[in-house]
Amino acid sequence: MLFKLLEDSQNIANVGETSTVGNMRSLKTQLRAVDRMYSRIAALYFITYVIALPLLCSDQQHSMYFRYDDTTRRKHLETAIDENQRRLAVAEEYLRKTGRHSRVFRRLNGAVKKRIQPQIVITVVTVARQPQSGLPEPRYLTQVVTQFAQLLEKEETGITFQVCNVNFPPEAHHEAVFLSRYVPVVHRGSTEQEQVEEEDRFEKEKLDYIFCLEKSVELNPQYVLMVEDDALPTPDMLHVLRHKLQYRLKTRISQGELLSNSDDWAFMKLYSLERWQGYGNDATAVLELTGVGLLGGTAFLCVFQRRRQKLLGRLVNFVLGFVYVVLLCWSIGRQYLLQFRRLSAQLYTVTSAPFCCTPAVLYPADMAAEIAAFLKTGTCEEMYPLDFALSDFAIDKGLQRYLVEPNLFQHVGFVSSLRSDVRDPLE
Known about the structure:
427 residues; alpha/beta; eight-stranded mixed β-sheet; two-stranded antiparallel sheet
């Protein structure tokens, strides 16, 4: 009996030793697996942020890897000039091939003469640019007019287009005078007394804007789209604009149902400065970044998941994925990620508009008339420009100010109409 007990004790000891050795081996295997997983994650971070992004994003001005200096500024100015000359050549070729008696130009002129009530009046506000030493004449207006003509070729009804020449004297704006052979152009004349009152360039800009607004309202539209002469529309501008008017401003979707939208709004901006469209500029962008980070954390959980992984390990994976994607989006720049929204009109967003800017602004016709009257009551200056006055109108009336993202217009002007100088192409 004693020998049997000793033998059983020995067997139990051997089993325990074998179990301990097995557990140690299992632990070592798990540690090696964890080490391999986190080594892969560390390599992913290193390759992404130390190698790939610095190479791919060093020339992208909205990226965290972009470095601004005088050499970069000159390079971008040269690129902007080259692109402008290329666009101008395409525009001139379009005018030459199409001819002023083409169907699209005859229809645009006829719409203004017949006073057919349109859904939208598009008014391009223009003034002659002062020649800059060493730079070719930019001729933005020609590019804008031909771009709109191409957009409106397939538009049979509903849109009226005109150019509003606010140069003094009007005939000195040779580009606008030439284009009057193709599209409707209204000219603002100024008396000598008015010229004295308009010595401040910001006040003159306001008075010019009022004139063009009132000329647009006279055509009795539902909406007025005011466009500066160096703002080029994107190819899908009209399609997206109509979609947002129908499904965001006139109506809204609530719990799967299409309901009438009772929100009153003063205007909707179709362009905002790209440098202000990054993360951190408003709560919407921060929430957007947080949502993308949560998706990144979930993706890391799926990709780097291990069997029988403990809760702490899963949490670490999620945090690493969250941080990786947030840093990735921040480093690339929200401005570039917004371009994916151009895949469909449904993906464009309508958010609250900032005070700046006015390259392209849509007004309900009744609001356009009220805004023109409101602007006459104040004076604009460098510290209180036109876009601030427009926002003050909306705030005073308790009206919404909207902005469409991404931009539906490209601001191509590098020769300023207000300051008569060359604008930094990276602004």
